[in-house]
Design brief:
binds calcium ion; 498 residues; single chain; 2 domains; globular; 17% helix; seven-stranded mixed sheet; 27% strand; binds fe (iii) ion; 9 helices; Purple Acid Phosphatase, chain A, domain 2; disordered N terminus
Length: 498
């Protein structure tokens, strides 16, 4: 493969242009084959995103683009027919960032719908819809999604999310999976074939880029991106299964694994609508972020992977008081933000489950009990805690206890775990793991089909609908089913079935 090596990315060096680059030639048609997106919403603006890829599945990972700079114009309007354009700008798509652009648009009005589009030469992109955050806020509705193994099935969940046009979409990790995709093995999405270049575990920057391209060719995923601003965090599979910090569980030495992390983090930035503050510096990238939805909700997006302590060597290690999943800097940032929170709701969104389930779930917060105790104490003080997670490919609703070991301790918030968009295929309503979860009185719901959660916050209550689908492997046409719904009143958190 040609292009950036891991080492050149790690030190931030640009790749030389290839010898056949001739600026001024028109790029091939179909440049917007990966769609458009917006993210990082604020009261005065957002980040727009597209990545030029006229041949998204070109095996070399370059999307059919030559190694040259391409000017990309963008427009933002108050109406979908662009009669009231409020911003025009120019961004330069470069081969160093896979011809992705991330223009940041500021100075707009709060709590307003906006429409945007891009132009390259004579070609115009699809129109995206996005929305700024409020400065006060009385109602905020969002979908949570995670774990979109493209090869395990279609994405009816994204089609349904797009039809609901929420104020935002929270993506909680596993946007891609790194595994080789093999027909007759893990390729369960019926009626599709993939080339041999997809058949190996991805390692290089070009392979990560190609994997994002493959997943992003899904029209329902593109529709969900084009419908609402996304708030994005990663979990493990954006790099490698169950990695933590610079530790691979497959025996790759840390000094080599950080190179892989560097290219994986770079591809994540290139392919998602996130701000310049999350541009990787070598193997380091800050993706944890805070968003204030007026004074209605303070949203803390958490990075559960980059800073976590390694797998415990024994039970004493697991119980160690100094053990951290967030890392000391992110922990302090989070607690500072919770202590100063002006909001009715204190929302945390991250990859892995907080609720205590079994001591051997060391990948989740069960592997970090001291960090969980510190966090629960802060959440109890802050009040009206809402934890949003994914990772387990199951829907779960639970009540957060001040002390999970003491059933009589107060309920201090709720956790809403969204099932996967695609990972694990069709699934079933229940499975062999259900009893591990439902043994606890604070776990109120468990379902092992695919779907998403749609949550609405108001000044008086939280409501959450768990949406699932009877199947996803055969096609994208399954009808959505609200399999459970709950309400939690403000200042008296609990899960009341609706
Ligand atoms: Fe997953
Ligand atoms: Ca995961």
């Amino acid at each position: 493969m040609t292009g950036l090596s891991a080492a050149s990315v790690a030190v931030g060096v640009s790749a030389p242009a290839s010898s056949d680059a001739t600026p001024g030639r028109p790029i091939p048609s179909g440049a917007f084959g990966l769609g458009v997106a917006s993210g990082d919403p604020r009261p005065d603006g957002f980040v727009l995103w597209t990545r030029l890829a006229p041949t998204p599945l070109a095996a070399d990972g370059h999307g059919g683009m030559r190694a040259e700079h391409v000017p990309v114009q963008y427009e933002v309007a108050e109406d979908s027919s662009f009669k009231r354009v409020v911003r025009r700008g120019l961004a330069i798509a470069t081969p160093e960032l896979a011809h992705a652009v991330h223009p940041e648009v500021r100075g707009l009005r709060p709590e307003r719908e906006y429409f945007y589009r891009f132009r390259v030469g004579t070609e115009v992109s699809p129109v995206g819809r996005t929305k700024t955050l409020p400065v006060h806020g009385s109602r905020f509705s969002f979908a949570t999604a995670s774990c979109q193994a493209w090869y395990h099935g279609y994405f009816p969940a994204y089609r349904d999310i797009a039809s609901r046009a929420p104020d935002a979409v929270f993506f909680l990790g596993d946007y891609i999976y790194e595994y080789g995709i093999v027909a007759g093995g893990n390729l369960w999405r019926e009626g599709v074939t993939v080339g041999p270049e997809h058949g190996v575990e991805i390692e290089t920057l070009e392979q990560y880029r190609l994997r994002y391209s493959l997943f992003k060719t899904d029209p329902d995923l593109q529709a969900a991106h084009a419908t609402a601003p996304w708030l994005n965090v990663w979990d493990d599979h954006e790099v490698q299964n169950n990695y933590g910090a610079d530790n691979s569980i497959y025996g790759i030495p840390p000094e080599l694994f950080v190179h892989r992390r560097a290219v994986a983090y770079r591809a994540f930035y290139e392919n998602l609508p996130i701000g310049l503050g999350s541009l990787p510096e070598g193997p380091d990238t800050q993706v944890y972020q805070r968003y204030d939805v007026g004074t209605l909700a303070r949203i803390n997006l958490l990075d559960n992977r980059q800073y976590r302590d390694p797998v415990p060597v024994d039970e004493a290690d697991r119980q160690s008081e100094s053990r951290t999943i967030l890392g000391s800097k992110q922990e302090q940032w989070l607690y500072d933000g919770l202590r100063r929170s002006p909001a009715t709701w204190n929302v945390l969104a991250g990859g892995v489950v907080l609720t205590a389930i079994t001591d051997d779930r060391i990948e989740q917060w069960d592997g970090y009990p001291a960090n969980r105790r510190r966090l629960l104490a802060e959440l109890q003080q802050a009040g009206n805690a809402v934890m949003l997670t994914g990772d387990i490919h199951r829907h779960v609703a639970s009540e957060l206890k001040a002390d999970f070991a003491d059933p009589a301790s107060p309920t201090i918030g709720v956790e809403l775990v969204c099932s996967s968009i695609g990972s694990d295929g069709d699934g079933a309503d229940t499975d062999q793991y259900a009893k591990d979860w439902l043994q606890h009185p604070y776990v109120k719901f468990y379902n092992a089909r695919r779907g998403y959660v749609h949550t609405t916050l108001t000044r008086s209550e939280l409501t959450a609908e768990f949406v699932n689908f009877p199947y996803i492997e055969a096609d994208a046409n399954a009808v959505p089913h609200v399999v459970a719904a709950f309400r939690s009143p403000v200042d008296a958190p609990r899960l009341e079935a609706l």
